[in-house]
């Protein structure tokens, strides 16, 4: 699964690009990457990821002149002014909504680009995610020219066994190729949503009682617990985009507003992080399907997730 030691030249160039851009971000208020080499378009892709699917997609939609930027890093650095020929955004849907941090980012960011696209990854049921993003981004003053979804491994542990999920063929390469071709011609398109999908989302919201303005924004200390198999490796500290975990003399403690991205529970090498008992919770009342199965995208390393999300 871990590809740390085997990266292609293309991946290496992209990673170098990310490192270079991090220093640009750190030293300037305005991130400006409009092309200075003739007609070649400069594309910036912003991403949020818990288990690597979205980082993988962002990499697949990049070429040598694309810069990939992690939204948790931009939020940490408060670098919210971004300019390029094309700006793309890739995020996982949570209850058909964006992660709370992505919502905050779009509300605060100043994006300047001739073409804006968003790719929303999901695992089983997208409902009206495209319309939800269209509404949120328009309200924030950023209309997106192209919004599409992409089905991938579903990392929602309460309902799915990760060992079964990874065996399913969800036609990712073919779907990615189609999206890539659309973007190459700067297609203006939003994936259509059906009345049935809108109804299913309304039903989901009524059942879960989630707030449509905050979605899956939770409290980490309420939902997670750490068993005594923890070896104190600190991976959870580095992969949390909220910086909620701390190593203490007795082990590990977590506290704070939580994106519910599952980066901590899925990336713990000891599988020591578990859901706390929440019997009355409509989503987590029955715990999880397989506590011994954990997932990270096969093309993405633990170090990649740390680089994307680390808040320290
Ligand atoms: C809190 C949470 C809620 C989710 N909600 C949905 C959902 O409503 N529909 C769906 O198909 N997948 C859902 N998923 C699955 C993710 O959207 C999907 O696995 C995504 O590709 C993960 O991206 P990442 O690996 O970049 O974090 C959810 C996952 C989490 C953690
Ligand atoms: S990632 Fe797991 S094993 Fe490592 S410190 Fe955190 S809880 Fe412990
Ligand atoms: S505590 Fe876990 S689920 Fe919550 S934001 Fe941090 S890594 Fe994500």
Can you tell me about this structure?
With 312 residues, the chain is of the alpha/beta class. The protein has a domain at 9-207: Rossmann fold, CATH 3.40.50. The chain is 34% helix and 19% strand. The protein contains 12 helices and 15 strands. It has helices at 9-27, 53-60, 71-77, 100-108, 129-139, 162-165, 172-184, 195-208, 220-223, 235-239, 263-267, 302-309; strands at 30-32, 43-47, 67-70, 81-83, 86-92, 110-112, 115-122, 146-151, 189-190, 218-219, 224-226, 245-248, 251-254, 257-258, 273-275. Strands 3-2-5-7-8-9 form a 6-stranded parallel β-sheet, sandwiched between helices. It has a 3-stranded parallel β-sheet with strand order 1-4-6, with no helix packed on it. A two-stranded antiparallel sheet has the order 10-14. Bound molecules: flavin mononucleotide (FMN) and iron/sulfur cluster (2 copies). One iron/sulfur cluster binds next to helix 11.
* Approximate helicity band: 25-40%
Largest sheet: 6 strands, parallel
The number of helices is 12
Q: Would you count the extended β strands for me?
A: 15
State the CATH class of the domain at 9-207.
Alpha Beta
Order of helices and strands: HEEHEHEEHEEHEHHEHEHEHEEEHEH
Structural class, by secondary structure, is alpha/beta
Distance, first to last CA: 26 Å
The CATH superfamily of the domain at 9-207 appears as Flavodoxin domain
How would the global form be characterised?
Answer: globular
Identify the CATH architecture of the domain at 9-207.
3-Layer(aba) Sandwich
Report the C-alpha radius of gyration, rounded.
19 Å
Instruction: Estimate the strand proportion.
Output: 15-25%
Which hetero ligands occur in this complex? flavin mononucleotide, iron/sulfur cluster
Might you state the CATH topology name of the domain at 9-207?
Rossmann fold
Compute the average pLDDT.
90
Widest β-sheet, arrangement of strands: 3-2-5-7-8-9
Poorly predicted runs: 1-37
